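C-alpha cells please, single chain.
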Amino acid sequence: MEIIDESLRRKIFENILESPGAWLMNAWWLKRAAEEIDWWTHRNADIQSPEGDFQFMVPVFHMLLGLSFENLLKGIVVAQRGSAGKAGLVDGDLTTHRMHDLVALLDQASVPISTKELAILTQLERYVVWAGRYPLPKRQEDIFVQTWSVEERQLMLSLWDRLYGVLRSMGWLTKGNGSRLWTDSNRNAPKG
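Here you go.
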C-alpha cells in the first residue's frame, strides 16, 4: 500500500526534477554497487570459491557502471539546463539509455568527450539495454563478445572520476523551500 499525499508527491518530484545532485547521488550508489561485484578485485579467486562467482558477474558490473555513467551524463545535462523537465514530466531526451545521444546533449566546450571515451560509453550501453539484465537480446545479431583491456578499464574509470568531478562541481539539490544546496560544499554559503 502506497501512502503519499498528492501535493507531497508533486513537491518531491519537482524538487528532484530541479536537482542535478540527485543524479550525482544515484551515480555514486550505482558505482558503489558495481565495485562490490567487480571481478577485477577478485580476479585471483578460485572459481570454486564464493569469490569465484564474481567472474560471472562481469555483465552486471558493466550494467551498473553503465547506469552510473548514464546518471552522470543526465545530471550534467540537468545542471546545464537548470532542470530535467517541467510540468511534472522529465524531458523526453533524458529518458534514453543511448550514451551517444546523451553525450550529444552536453555542452562539449565544458565537458569534452574523446572518441575513445565515447566508444567506452557506447560499449557500456549494451550492458544497460540487455547484456547485464537478460541472458540474450531481442535479436540474434545483437549478441556480442566483449573483452576489456587494462587500458580500456583504466580509461573507463578515469572518465567516471572526471564526469563525477564535473557534476559535483556544478550540481545542487533543490530543498523543499526552493533553495539550493550545492554538491560541492565549498559553494554553500557559510552559516552565521
